[in-house]
Fold this protein.
Amino acid sequence: MKVFIETYGCQMNVYDSGLVMSILKKDGWMQAERLEDADLILINTCSIRENAEQRVFGRLDVCLQQKKQREGLIVAVLGCMAQRMKDKLLEHPAVDLVVGPDSYRRMPALIAGAITGEPVLETTLSHTETYADMEPVRDDNGVTTFVSIMRGCNNMCSYCIVPYVRGPERSRDPESIIRECRNAFEAGYREVTLLGQNVDSYYWTSDEGPDSDMTFARLLEEVAQISPLLRVRFSTSHPKDMSNAVLYSMALYPNICTHIHLPVQSGSDVMLEKMNRKYDRARYMDRIQKIREIVPDCSVTTDVIAGFCSESLEDHNQTLDLLREVRFDSAFMFQYSMRPGTRAHRRFVDDVPEKEKTRRLSEIIDLQTAISLERNREHIGKSFEVLIEGVSKKNKDELFGRTSGNKVCVFPAQGHRKGEYVKVTVDSCTSATLIGHISE
């Protein structure tokens, strides 16, 4: 029996798809390369924005056509959208099984139930599940990979659906994290990204007493000590929780990458309070100042939302001012999309016109693109250690990789291969890419 998994959304969903595949392989399933070859189709979903959900419904229509052609085909929807939409998904004629993100251990039994012809719904959220004793089947480039260190979120940002579909925050046993990272290194991986909705709040209480408790800063150091050849990244940080201890750990270990993704969302204190972000602009700028003081060569990226509920033109201009002041290396920039079930949906009105949201987003994108280009131009003539991740999509004679600061770099292969570290000198750039040559 063959299973095909299609994944939408964040890196955590990619990791979860690997967990599900690991569970199913132990139950005798093989992975199919194409949807058309599968006896079981799993769609692992995202609910962050409405268009992500619409794409899933489009794929379910494709699955329905497959079901009409092949008797016995089972279709399951997993993940955040499964948790949020439950019964509505089960009403779709293609769907046999709906499974939330804390129920993957039961997949073999749930699939067996669906095979009998009865629709199956399992979306119970857990306060304890971290899948700590499991390692995913990795479907990546063989060089860089992800390791989940925690699940869920307690922040309750007013625009965000994650706490409702991922459950409360819980940290994973550090021994299992370190073991998984070590296994990845021994399997040939040269970079791990520690994943969590809010990695800075990672905390594991030890039975051996408070001196043995594991903070995120200590965990970073433990993983970095596996080998100097193993790069360590992390995502995502929260401004209210990022400690100086994490920054000192980054400064202490050369293999902890000098890149921090620190979502700001807005430059306006009015909007930050309405978003329930639990910090103000001054607190955010304090974190930026500390990053640049303790880790001077650190690149900083961010997330920005345009057109949140009742955002004024002045609020928007304050966001533009913050972009100019911080000069982020890059940013993920979005037009606000009201998500049913969130605090904003219950309390606020989505009253910024769509046309104005689009205009503001375009202004943010244009400004940040110009800043990203300026930041990259500052690297011309400098040399960086680059971990090669693969062959360039545009030119088979070129390779690409990333610097410690998470800058994508493209350069002539010169006989090198993915998984190697090389020194690259930057000759030119775009707003998104450094272009150079191997200099040793």
